[in-house]
Write a structure and sequence with these properties.
Helix content is 48%, strand content 14%. By secondary structure, it is an alpha/beta fold. It has a single domain, classed as 3-Layer(aba) Sandwich (Indigoidine synthase fold). Strands 1, 2, 3, 4, 5, 6, 7, 8, 9, 10 and 11 form an eleven-stranded mixed beta sheet that branches. The longest helix is centred in the last third of the chain and has 29 residues. The relative contact order is 0.14. The structure holds pseudouridine-5'-monophosphate and manganese (II) ion.
């Protein structure tokens, strides 16, 4: 069986891709494991609505019934928001889930894989995975980074999750040849905060500029994706030192409770939400909406560029 057998692309998305209209991929792990139920339902639907308002077709991805889903029905979207019996599926898990017909939420890595298979070039999320703090000893390095090294999708994010080691994450991306562009910023954003202290080599002022870099990269046949660091809007930014202190506490608690590997992020995000009385969650929502909006505009700019190529 070929790839098409496993891919289930919603007709609206297939039409848009065929007619060269912009489509943006969205992940489902952020729903199932990154946000609390039932608040995530509102997010899931609003995320898609934001894209439609920009004239862009949303393609939330997931693994349901032995298929790689590109675009979900409203019912499927709700299903992905209820984390009961929904696994967190990264690259290594995909074949196992498909073969068993299990339902799984796609991470940044798997969403990139599925987007690329469908021909979608732009994807928006909250924050990418990266090298965990202490990763030089635990080797806990998100598969997201390796995916960025090999799969041709531009990922718009508010930097990497702040619970990670941002310096090591940037080093890894450099080694793997992944361009990291700051969208109207000189620094790699730190999720809840606009600044991380880590300077970026490239700053882009417009969506068109980013689209041109994407095109040249792929024209050259350079494999892999791009990271677009889009800082959280100022009005929702949280205090860096305060957040860092809370994150350190949450990571310590995770360690004491023996939480490891892929369970760390969901645990820590839930802890942070509690420790900040929901303030961190509100910021998380806003930075994601902001990324989705920018991704929609990048997808539109990229499509314009591709239209003019004969
Ligand atoms: N960032 C968030 N919330 C999330 C994630 C990232 O704010 O839920 C998810 C993404 O799906 C990302 C994954 O791909 O965490 C990375 O997990 P890990 O570190 O286990 O690879
Ligand atoms: Mn990990």
């Amino acid at each position: 069986m070929n790839v098409e057998y496993y891919l289930d692309i919603r007709p609206e998305i297939a039409d848009a891709l065929r007619e060269n209209r912009p489509v943006v991929a969205l992940e489902s792990t952020i729903l199932s494991h990154g946000m609390p139920y039932p608040e995530n339902i509102e997010f899931a639907h609003k995320a898609e609505k934001i894209l439609r308002e920009e004239g862009v077709i949303p393609a939330t991805t997931a693994i349901i019934g032995g298929k790689l889903k590109v675009g979900l029905s409203p019912e499927e979207l709700d299903l992905m928001c209820n984390p009961v019996d929904i696994g967190k599926v990264s690259r290594r898990d995909v074949a196992v889930y498909l073969a068993a017909g299990k339902t799984g939420a796609t991470t940044v890595a798997t969403t990139m894989m599925i987007a690329a298979m469908a021909g979608i070039r732009v994807f928006a999320t909250g924050g990418i995975g990266g090298v965990h703090r202490g990763g030089e000893n635990t080797m806990d390095i998100s598969a997201d980074l390796q995916e960025l090294a090999s799969t041709p999708v531009a990922v718009v994010c508010a930097g990497a999750k702040m619970i990670l080691d941002l310096g090591l994450t940037l080093e890894y991306l450099e080694t793997m040849g992944v361009p990291v562009l700051g969208f109207r910023t000189d620094e790699f954003p730190a999720f809840y905060c606009r600044r991380s202290g880590f300077k970026l080599d490239y700053r882009a002022e417009s969506e068109e500029e980013i689209a041109r870099i994407m095109k040249v990269k792929w024209d050259l046949g350079l494999k892999g994706g791009l990271v677009i660091g889009n800082p959280i809007p100022e009005e929702y930014e949280l205090d860096y030192d305060r957040m860092n202190a809370v994150i350190t506490d949450a990571l310590k608690k995770a360690d004491e409770q023996g939480i490891r590997g892929k369970y760390i992020t969901p645990f820590v995000l839930a802890e942070l939400r509690e420790m900040t009385d929901g303030v961190s969650f509100a910021s998380n929502l806003e930075l994601a909406y902001n990324n989705i909006r920018v991704a929609g505009r990048i997808a539109a700019a990229y499509n314009e560029l591709m239209k003019n190529v004969s």
